[in-house]
Amino acid sequence: MSKELTDSLINLVFVGIPECIALTMLMLAFLQLPLIWKKTFLVGITQAITVIVFRMVSNSLELPGLHTAAAVITSGLLVSAFWRASRLKALTCSIIAIVLLSILEILYYHLLEILFTVNLDQIVQSKLYWVLGGWLHITTLSLAALLIMKTQWYKKGLHKYTPFNHIGAR
Q1: Are 54 and 66 in contact (CB under 8 A)?
Q2: String of b and e for 47-65 (b: at least 16 CB within 10 Å)?
Q3: The pTM is what?
Q4: What is the longest distance spanned by two Cα atoms in the chain?
Q5: How far apart are CA 25 and CA 88, in angstroms?
Q6: Residue 62 — pLDDT band, cuts 50, 70, 90?
Q7: Each residue of 88-119: b (16+ CB within 10 Å) or e?
Q8: Residue 140 CB-density burial (10 A; 0-12 exposed, 13-18 middle, 19+ buried)
Q9: Is the pLDDT of residue 66 over 50?
Q10: What is the chain's percent helix, strand, coil content, to nearest 5?
Q11: Which residues lie closer than 8 Å to 119 by C-beta, 6 or more apart?
Q12: What is residue 135's DSSP assignment?
């Protein structure tokens, strides 16, 4: 087996699948849909496999970012299909979740650079640093999703703040 394929499989199992499950959880929280673990795992695994295939194809074609577009589209369509949600809302939430993931990746990989006095190339080459960085943002996304779902802060006080429930509204 080639080194690239081995690295991709390691990345899929230790980072890719958990990351896609966390993204699905976050999308469900944004969409105010129930967290059904069986569906969540199935969507996460399907999305992770799709993304890794697109990443390998995009690397061979030298088209960076193709896997990100695949992640946005597949997660939006899969959540829409499995939970019967609006495609537009699911794709919008998918974009937001991927943007948050990207921001967290940048922040946590920069944190790893500072903590371990390594550069990004060394982080990418080291499976330990790569998995550690991956699990930092996976944990953050999962906790954010669970916090949103558990507190349901988006439902609190909605009767007070409707668009036309203020002085001067007709």
Answers
A1: yes
A2: bbebbbebbeebeeeeeee
A3: 0.86
A4: 70
A5: 18
A6: confident
A7: ebbbbbbeebbebbeebeeebbeebbeeeebe
A8: middle
A9: yes
A10: 80, 0, 20
A11: 113
A12: H
pLDDT score recorded for residue 146: 94
pLDDT of residue 1: 62
Distance of CA 69 to the CA centre of its chain: 12
Q: Are 19 and 140 in contact (CB under 8 A)?
A: no
CA 107 to chain centre: 15
Residue among 38, 39, 48 nearest 18 (CA): 48
What is each CA distance from 23 to 46, 59, 76, 128, 170, in whole angstroms?
Answer: 13, 23, 10, 22, 41
Which amino acid appears at position 140 of this protein?
T
CB atoms within 10 A of CB 152: 10
| Helix/strand number for the chain, H first, E second | 7, 0
